[in-house]
Amino acid sequence: MYQIKEAIFEKSASNYLQCPKNELPEIAFIGRSNVGKSSLINMLTGVKNLAKTSQTPGKTQLINHFLVDKKWYLVDLPGYGFAKVPLSEKGKWEKMTWDYLLNRPNLRYVFVLIDLRIPPQKIDLEFLYKLGENGLPIKLIFTKADKVKTMEAQKNTTAFREAMAVDWKIIPEFFITSAERKNGKTELLGLIEEIIFDNF
Ligand SMILES: Nc1nc2c(ncn2[C@@H]2O[C@H](COP(=O)(O)OP(=O)(O)O)[C@@H](O)[C@H]2O)c(=O)[nH]1
Ligand SMILES: [Mg+2]
């Protein structure tokens, strides 16, 4: 089983051109602010506080690269959908994020995090649609599974996939996780191993 031995913060970039220059494969993590992205990154790497978990949505507006086992980059992208942020900030987020997503040759996968507790959100569906339109490989990662009963979790993932099916022929593979209980850790690390080490 793949386990992460080392994860080191390398740099923050406000522009894709400032991202690390070497060509290691990378996986980007993104989702609405407060979806549990930092918590998931900390769970996967086993490094507490690697990605700062915060109660203040939309604070980190930078592309953060973490070098993992000296072999690949885990990329923490700023969250979207924060309510209390001025339009100019949203414009900056859009440009920075899409410039990165569309111009980063070593980007292998985008992991899109979805809050399992709530019904399908337009903002997530639209973001996913744009990723799909641009041919970016996607996995869906549902978060905070511990907060809902199994039945409700099933209902919400089904609803989300049905909402996606309106525009998509093939629904991306999905994973159900809880950073709180470390659910989904083995599955996600297995997936990462395939992506990074098996030229998947
Ligand atoms: N119960 C529960 N809470 C979580 C989980 N993941 C994150 N949270 C909480 O959700 C809030 C936002 O988490 P954070 O990781 O900072 O989200 P981010 O903004 O997407 O990076 C924090 O209060 C976390 O403690 C989870 O799996 N279960
Ligand atoms: Mg965060």
Describe this protein's structure:
This protein is of the alpha/beta class. The protein has one domain: P-loop containing nucleotide triphosphate hydrolases (Rossmann fold, 3-Layer(aba) Sandwich). Helices cover 34% and strands 21% of the residues. It has helices at residues 37-45, 87-103, 122-133, 150-165, 185-197; strands at 7-13, 26-31, 63-68, 72-76, 107-115, 138-143, 174-176. The mean pLDDT is 92. It binds guanosine-5'-diphosphate (GDP) and magnesium ion. Guanosine-5'-diphosphate (GDP) binds at residues 31, 33-39, 53-55, 57, 79, 143-144, 146-147, 178-180.
Span from first to last CA? Answer: 17 Å
Our estimate of the beta-strand percent is 15-25%
In N-to-C order, the SSE pattern is EEHEEHEHEHEH
Please tell me what the overall shape is: globular
Could you give a short description of this structure?
The chain is an alpha/beta fold. It has five helices and seven strands.
Key terms:
alpha/beta, seven-stranded mixed β-sheet, binds guanosine-5'-diphosphate, single chain, 21% strand, Rossmann fold, 200 residues, binds magnesium ion
Please write out the topology:
Blueprint: E1 7-13, E2 26-31, H1 37-45, E3 63-68, E4 72-76, H2 87-103, E5 107-115, H3 122-133, E6 138-143, H4 150-165, E7 174-176, H5 185-197
Bound molecules: guanosine-5'-diphosphate and magnesium ion.
Magnesium ion (MG) is lined by residues 37-38, 51, 54, 60.
